[in-house]
C-alpha cells in the first residue's frame, strides 16, 4: 500500500506542455513586461517591507486597493486572494469536496486545469460538451449540476480555449436554478471582455467569481489571482488556506500595479486593437476558420493542416497552443494576441506556409 493517497498513482505531476520559442504565443500571457514601468513604485514599497516579519498591515492596504478596483460597492470582506486564479480554484475544490462521490461540473472544452485540480484534491469531474457553435444546453447543464454529488459548477466566461462569451441570461438562469450549489464563474479574461457578474453577487449567495492578474495585468510570473463572493463564502474558503499564503513581495507588486493602472489600460487597448486587426487579416486567409473572441487569444481551425502548421510555426520560432484534443476543437490551434511584431510574424508565417 502506498504511503500517499492511492488515487494519486493514476495522476501525473503538473507540467507546462508547450514549446518554448522566441515568440511565445501559447499561454495567453502579455507581451509587456511591466517591471520597467512600475519599478520606482515597487522599489519604494520594497524599502518599507520588513522581510523578517510576518505581516498584517500590507494586507490591509491591498484589500482596500483591490476592493476599489473591483468596485460594484463591494468591500474587503468580499475578497480572497491567492497565488494565481489557479490557487483560488484549487482551494475552492478543497473546500467543497464532501466525500468520494463528490464531483465538479465543467463545460468541455474549457480550462484544462479544472480537471487537474479537481483530481488533485480527490474530487471527481464531469463535463457537458459545448455545441458546434460553442454554446451549450442550459437544461442539460442544470440537470447535471442538480445531482446531489455535484459540489461545484464552473463556468469559464469568456471560455478558454474557445474564446466566446456565453449569453448573460443563460448563466443567470443557471445561477438562479442552483441556489444550494456553489457556482463559480471564472472571469480570468474579464478585462478583455468587460463582462462580469460582479453586480449579481448580492442577489446570488451561491456565486463566486475568480479573476487573475496574469493576463490583463501582464503578471503571469507574479502569481496573483482573487475570488469575489459574499463575506460568508469568503470566510468559509479562508478556512482551507494557510495564514500567510501570499508573499509580501507579491502583495507589494500588486499594489504597484494597482497604482499604475494606466500602463495596463493602454496595453489592454493595444491587445483589443491587435485582436480585431488579426481577426480581419486571418479571415482573408484561405484554408482556415477563425472564431470571434472576447479574450486575448484567437482560436483557429486549420483542418487537416493543423499539425503541420503547428510544427511549421515552431520551426519559425513561434509557439502556439494545440487545443485539438477535444473533438469540438479538432484541428484547432490557439494563438495569443501579442505585440504587433509577433502578430505580424505569425500572419507572415501562415501566409508563407500556403505560398
Ligand atoms: C480560464 C483560466 N482560468 C484560470 C487560469 C489561471 O490563471 P492564473 O495564472 O492566475 O493562475 C487561466 C490561465 O490561463 C485560465 O485561462
The CATH topology of the largest domain is: Aspartate Aminotransferase, domain 2
Give the helices and strands as they follow along the chain. Answer: EHHEHEHEHEHEHEEHHHEEHEEEH
CATH architecture of the largest domain: 3-Layer(aba) Sandwich
Strand fraction equals 15-25%
Q: Any ligands, ions or cofactors bound here, and which?
A: pyridoxal-5'-phosphate
Q: Residue-averaged pLDDT, rounded? A: 96
Low-confidence stretches: none
Number of strands: 13
What radius of gyration results from the CA coordinates? 21 Å
> How does the helix and strand content classify structurally?
alpha/beta
The overall number of domains is 2
CATH class label of the largest domain: Alpha Beta
- CATH homologous superfamily grouping of the largest domain: Type I PLP-dependent aspartate aminotransferase-like (Major domain)
If you had to describe this structure to a student in words, what would you say it looks like?
The N and C termini lie far apart (59 Å). Strands 2-8-7-6-5-3-4 form a 7-stranded mixed sheet, sandwiched between helices. Helix content is 39%, strand content 16%. The radius of gyration is 21 Å and the shape is globular. Strand 5, helix 6 and strand 6 form a beta-alpha-beta unit. It has 2 domains: 120 residues, Aspartate Aminotransferase, domain 1 (Alpha-Beta Complex); 212 residues, Aspartate Aminotransferase, domain 2, CATH 3.40.640. The model has no long low-confidence stretch (mean pLDDT 96). The protein contains 12 helices and 13 strands. It has 355 residues and is of the alpha/beta class. Bound molecules: pyridoxal-5'-phosphate. Pyridoxal-5'-phosphate binds next to helix 3.
Amino acid at each position: 500500500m502506498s504511503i500517499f493517497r492511492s488515487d494519486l498513482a493514476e495522476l501525473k505531476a503538473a507540467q507546462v506542455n508547450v514549446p518554448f520559442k522566441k515568440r511565445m504565443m501559447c499561454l495567453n500571457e502579455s507581451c509587456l513586461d511591466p517591471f520597467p514601468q512600475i519599478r520606482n513604485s515597487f522599489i519604494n514599497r520594497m524599502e518599507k517591507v520588513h522581510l523578517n516579519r510576518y505581516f498584517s498591515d500590507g494586507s490591509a492596504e491591498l484589500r482596500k486597493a483591490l476592493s476599489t478596483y473591483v468596485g460594484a460597492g463591494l468591500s474587503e470582506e468580499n475578497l480572497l486572494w491567492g497565488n494565481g486564479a489557479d490557487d483560488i480554484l484549487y482551494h475552492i475544490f478543497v473546500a467543497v469536496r464532501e466525500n468520494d462521490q463528490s464531483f465538479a461540473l465543467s463545460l468541455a472544452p474549457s480550462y484544462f486545469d479544472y480537471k487537474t485540480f479537481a483530481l488533485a484534491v480527490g474530487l471527481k469531474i464531469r463535463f457537458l460538451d459545448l455545441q458546434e457553435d460553442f454554446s451549450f444546453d442550459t437544461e442539460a447543464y442544470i440537470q447535471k449540476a442538480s445531482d446531489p454529488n455535484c459540489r461545484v459548477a464552473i463556468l469559464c466566461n469568456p471560455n478558454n480555449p474557445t474564446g466566446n462569451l456565453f449569453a448573460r441570461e443563460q448563466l443567470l438562469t443557471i445561477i438562479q436554478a442552483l441556489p444550494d450549489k456553489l457556482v463559480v464563474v471564472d472571469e480570468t479574461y474579464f478585462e478583455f471582455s468587460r463582462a462580469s457578474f460582479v453586480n449579481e453577487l448580492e442577489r446570488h449567495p451561491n456565486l463566486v467569481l475568480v479573476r487573475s492578474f496574469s493576463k490583463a495585468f501582464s503578471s503571469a510570473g507574479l502569481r496573483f489571482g482573487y475570488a469575489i463572493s459574499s463575506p460568508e463564502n469568503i470566510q468559509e474558503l479562508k478556512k482551507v488556506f494557510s495564514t500567510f499564503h501570499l508573499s509580501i513581495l507579491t502583495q507589494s507588486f500588486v499594489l504597484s500595479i494597482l497604482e499604475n493602472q494606466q500602463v495596463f489600460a493602454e496595453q489592454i487597448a493595444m491587445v483589443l486593437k491587435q485582436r480585431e486587426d488579426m481577426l480581419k487579416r486571418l479571415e482573408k486567409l484561405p484554408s482556415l476558420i477563425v472564431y470571434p473572441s472576447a479574450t486575448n487569444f484567437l482560436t483557429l481551425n486549420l483542418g487537416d493542416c493543423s499539425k503541420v502548421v503547428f510544427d511549421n510555426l515552431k520551426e519559425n520560432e513561434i509557439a502556439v497552443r494545440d487545443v485539438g484534443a477535444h473533438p469540438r476543437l479538432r484541428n484547432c490551434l490557439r494563438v495569443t494576441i501579442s505585440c504587433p511584431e509577433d502578430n505580424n510574424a505569425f500572419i507572415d508565417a501562415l501566409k508563407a506556409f500556403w505560398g
